[in-house]
Amino acid sequence: MRLAVVGAGAVGRSVVELAGEYGHEVVAVADSSSAVVADGTGGRDPGVDADAVVARKAERGVVGDADPSDALAAEYDALVEATPTTLGDAEPGFSHVTTALERDRHAVLANKGPVAERFGDLRAAEAASAGEVRFEATVGGAIPAVSTVEDIEPGHVTAVRGVLNGTANFILTRMAAEGLDYEHVLAEAQDLGVAEADPSFDVDGTDAALKCVILANVLSFGAVDDPDDAREFTLDDAAVEGIRDVPGSALRLAAEDGRTVRLIGEATGETVRVAPRLVPENGTLAVSGTQNIVQIETSHAGRLNISGRGAGGPETASAVLGDVGRLE
After folding, report:
1. In tens digits, what is the pLDDT along the chain, a chain of 328 residues?
2. CB of 120 closer than 8 Å to CB of 233
3. Residue 110: closest CA among 325, 320, 311
């Protein structure tokens, strides 16, 4: 497939670098201020030079000399939306996706905003298009959470829960292992690059909540024949509690009882909750470090567990390119 990649952060760059290994060609790349679009040859684009695009971004901070809108107007089969997640109106990501759908092109999202905040609008735009929307990469990085729920069929899934933020999990793991308090471990995580300078999105539970909102929408819309009968979720519908107020003493006491604390998100077709919870120290949900895990409760197949890397450029790009493969 011919891909246009919008967003040149870690995920977007990784998609550009790895697309060829998956049998696809990148014909356009855009960041917030520039773009590069392949020259057409014989009526078909041969693709951009991936190494040159990535090098130029690293050296000059831009991907090319064209305008970002030129990438959206390029001749591609699928748009990869990998710009940063924004809340509320989910712009500009939402408009990027609808522009592709209006042209009857496919769209594959790594950006959580449009799927978490405007799921109904996104499905309506998809219904009016010959294109399809995929968004595996928005939940759990390389973990195939969305596609597994779809394969089981949402009507047969009663709940999805798990550890869905690597930064929060790293902090809680270190607090438990070393008997340290939150602020000390946060500083360590920031030094290691595991936590951002402003860690709010991760430690306050927002990131995990967005992923659970997306899963709740998948369950709600997937269980009905008419989208008008589905309940649409946004971040405002989620009950969210982060890890800032978890004291080191709570983890020490939990360990005495063979338990530990993890930030657990849970989604059903009715509710979304994210909060620190006690879990068995050697239990399935007690993944360590930056690992993520997703538990899927099913009506007929019991509980399914999927764990792995929940973030990272190549890991998330593999989910994006897996979605592109599903479109073929």
Report:
1. 999 999 999 999 999 999 999 999 999 999 999 999 998 644 455 799 999 999 999 999 999 999 999 999 999 999 999 999 999 999 999 999 999 999 999 999 999 999 999 999 999 999 999 999 999 999 988 999 999 999 999 999 999 999 999 999 999 999 999 889 999 999 999 999 899 999 999 999 999 999 999 999 999 999 999 999 999 999 999 999 999 999 999 999 999 999 999 999 999 999 999 999 999 999 999 999 999 999 999 999 999 999 998 888 999 999 999 999 999 8
2. no
3. 320
Cα 52 from Cα 224, distance rounded (Å): 47
DSSP per residue, 115-172: HHH-HHHHHHHHHTSSS-EE-GGGTTTTS-HHHHHHHH-GGGEEEEEEE--HHHHHHH
Residues 103, 109 contacting (CB under 8 angstroms): no
Q: How many helices (H) and strands (E) does the chain have?
A: 13, 12
To the query of whether residue 57 is one of the catalytic residues in this protein, the response is no
The span from the CA of 281 to the CA of 173, in Å, is 11
Q: How much is the pTM? A: 0.95
Q: Among residues 56, 57, 118, 211, which one is catalytic? A: 211
Instruction: Compute CA distances 286 → 58, 178, 219, 294, whole Å.
Output: 37, 16, 25, 11
Q: What share of the chain is helix, strand, coil (3-state, %, to 5)?
A: 45, 20, 35
